[in-house]
Amino acid sequence: MKFKYSARTKEGELQVGFVEAPIQNVAADILAGHNLLVLSLEREKAVRSIDKIIGFFNRVKLTDIMIFTRQFAILLESDVPLGDSIRNLHKQTKNQFLKEIIYEISNDINAGLSLSQSLERQNRIFSDFYLNMIKSAEVTGRLEEAMVFLADYLEKEVSWRSKVRNAMIYPLFIISLFSIVVIILLTVVFPKLAPVFEESNTKLPLPTKILLNSGNFMLDWWWVIISILVMVIFLIIEYFKTAEGKNVINELTIRMPILGDLFKKIYIARFAESLSVLIKGGIPITQAIEISSHNIGNIAYRDILHNIAESVRAGELFSSLIAKNEYYFPSLVGQMVAIGESTGRLEEILSKISIFYTREVDNILNNLSELIQPILISVIGVFVGLLFATILIPIYNLAQGFKM
Fold first, then answer.
1. In whole angstroms, what is the distance from residue 38 CA to residue 15 CA?
2. Residue 106: which of 85, 79, 128, 86 has the closest Cα?
3. For residue 110, which of 140, 92, 86, 93 has the smallest C-alpha distance?
4. How many other C-beta atoms can be found within 10 angstroms of the C-beta atom of residue 289?
5. In 78-205, where does DSSP find H-type helix?
6. CA-CA distances (angstroms) from residue 272 to 100, 266, 275, 354?
7. pLDDT tens sequence across 112-153
8. Distance between CA atoms of residues 160 and 361, nearest Å
């Protein structure tokens, strides 16, 4: 089990964190063995199901973090002291869950922790990239600049997510509406036509028989169909929560037509920008690659970049390793990185790569609805045509029989 502790080192520095041990006394002995003077030691509370549900509705969204960062940057640029800035943010924040987190950060700073240490205790909210940016800024004394950059970066991320979400609303609405219409036709309209065909002894094509039988099956066994659908959806959701499922969904993301190319460019823009900033902040390139890999948001890219970081650590060129993964990184990226390495201006080149792909992403997102709409209309039009043809052809044949 885990125990939450606060302790002081021999030098008097405050240290907080978690330690695993079977009982509290063993946890205290472990901490004492590390020359720590224990101030408090409490067992971590188990997370209840109801807490998970409450946490889902009270979770901190990316938009909340973006607003928090922008307000923080403005306060720091206005030369407001760090402690006062945190207290002002606590007053202004509307999200109650984030408000509590800011309160904990304020208490940690008052207890003597640095801003990066305080944020690190909330690492479920703040990403590794965010934390490392703050750490490097504290070392260089450029905290205001780091906050401004993070605010700009998060605003771009929020904008991209919003554009993707808005572009997908129309297709999802059309697909949902089409599905409802199909269900109504199969369960209400088509079953009423079946007696007419039976009385006239009309020979029905196989597709028509399948449609009519499907409608009857749905009417008789609707509760079974709903139960199976709920179970399948539940199993799919649970599968995608596993490591294998996350790998599958991340791989599918970059292999989808149209959207796959978009997500690749988003991932490259994120990687190039974060790597550029981390290198400028004085973080070694191998560590910067590792941190950036976790900031991309795709497991496939994370694993590839982890391997690249290990190879760079072993002495291989970063540009040659990028070039070997041309499916994930277009040849342009490898060529630009090679130029950056040869000229000693890698961070500048990475910044230019980020700007280039950011523009590409913005152009695609601005035209995404126009790209998806004709394809969607064509596909649905084909299905509607086939659906009505399977019924209209037998009706036409029946009408021809009456004329004779």
1. 9
2. 86
3. 86
4. 25
5. 82-92, 96-110, 115-120, 128-140, 143-184, 190-199
6. 34, 10, 5, 5
7. 888 888 888 888 888 877 887 888 788 778 888 889 888 988
8. 8
Higher pLDDT, 361 or 48: 361
Instruction: Count Cβ atoms within 10 A of the Cβ of residue 66 and give its class: 0-12 exposed, 13-18 middle, 19 or more buried.
Output: buried
H or E segment to which residue 28 belongs: helix 24-33
Amino acid at 130: Y
- Residues 47 and 159: their CA atoms lie apart, in Å, by 33
The predicted model gives 41-61 an average pLDDT of 57
Q: Is-contact 157 362, C-beta < 8 A?
A: no
| Res. 54 pLDDT band, cuts 50 70 90 | very low
Tokens standing for residue 352: 């230019």
Which pTM was predicted? 0.70
Q: What angle do CA 336, 342, 345 make, to 5 degrees?
A: 70
CA gap 144, 155 in Å, rounded: 17
Non-local CB neighbours of 88 within 8 Å, separated by 6+ positions: 71, 75, 80
Largest CA distance in the chain: 105
Q: Which residue has the tokens 């792909």?
A: 357
Q: What angle do CA 133, 138, 139 make, to 5 degrees?
A: 100
